[in-house]
Amino acid sequence: MTAAQLLQRSTHVFIGVIEKHEYPNRFLFRVSGEDAANWRVVGIKVKVEMVLRGVEPRTTIDIYEAFPTGGLSGDWNLTQDNRRYLFPVRLEDGRYHLTRDFWRSIFPVYSGRHDRLPLDDSRALWERFALLQWWVQPDRSRAFGDHRYTDPGRVFGRWREAKVLRGLLRHPDKEVRLAACEDLLHMSLAQDECWDSLNPSDRRKLNKFWNMVAPEESRKQNRAFEKYAHQRWDETVGMPTLTFDAINELRLFTTINNSVLRREFCAKFQKRFPQDGENGCPADRRPPATMVTQAGDIPLVGEWPKL
Fold first, then answer.
1. In this predicted structure, what is the pLDDT of residue 263?
2. Burial 143-169 (b: 16+ CB within 10 A, else e)
3. Cβ neighbours of residue 221 under 8 Å, at least 6 residues apart?
4. What's the chain's Rg over C-alpha atoms?
5. Same-domain status, 88 and 178
6. pLDDT tens across 75-96, in order?
C-alpha cells in the first residue's frame, strides 16, 4: 500500500497522544484467517489533538490494530505510551481500525503540539504533514530531528528538507541546531558546513540518531563525496528521465561544502536548468534557508526571529 493509497482508504486521520495500550478480550475482538492464532487485536487509547480528516467530537478515542504475536522484523508499528503520532484509520462497525495493520502506518510527530497544519486545504495532506514535522514548538520531543518518518508521502524531497535544516541551524535552541547539523551531515552529499562552526565538544554530540557511527567517521564519509561528485553528477543528468528526487539531488550539488566544487556545479546547474530558481547559486552567497510557519516554509534571510 503506497502512502497515497493509505490516505485514500482512510475515513479519518488524527494526530494525538497515546495514553495507553490495551489487549481486549479475545472473545470480543478476533482476527480471522488461517493463521489467526498467530495474531491478536491491540487497542490504543488516543487523546486527540487534531482531526485532519473526518469528524470526531470526542477528545479520547480507541483505535484497534491486528498485530502478530510471533517474532518481528521490518518496519512495523512500534508505538509507545505518552508519544504523539499521526493515525490513518477506517471507521468499521462503529470502531476505528488502523487502515494498515502491523506494517508502518502510524507516524511519529516530534515537533510538538499544534492546533493546525501549515498551509491550507488546497495543498496535499502529506506535504502539510511533512512541513509540520519541522515546525518546532516549545514542547518538542527530545527525538526532534529524527527524520526517518518526516516525509511519508515522499513529496517533500531532500532539497526542501536541507533548506529547512539550514534554517534550523539559526534556531535559538542549541539542541535544535545540533539536530539539524547532524541531519545535514548524514545527507552524505557534503552538506555539512555547520561542522566547521562547532567546537569539538559539540561535534561529539552529532550522533544522537546515528549513535553507532562516530561523528568524525560520518564527517570523513561526507568529505569522501567530493572524490566522486563529478561521476555522481554525470550519472544523474544522464538518466533517461530526471525524476523529482534526481533534480532535488542536483540542486544539492549547488550547496556542496567546497567552494571550488560549488562554483563548478552552479555553472553546470544553471546551464542545464536556466529557468530554475531553486538552487544555491550564485556560489558566493549563503546557502538558501527556510523556516516553517502557518504559511508554509518561507525564506529565512537573517537570523531566526526571536520567540
1. 97
2. ebbbbebbbbbebbbbbbbbbbbbbbb
3. 188
4. 22
5. no
6. 999 999 999 999 999 999 999 9
pLDDT surpasses 80 at 212 = no
pTM value > 0.85? yes
pLDDT in tens, 44-71: 999 999 999 999 999 999 999 998 887 8
Domain boundary among 108, 139, 171: 108
The grid cell for 286 is 549563503
Q: Are residues 89 and 10 in contact, defined by beta-carbon separation less than 8 angstroms?
A: yes
Is there a domain that residue 116 lies in? no
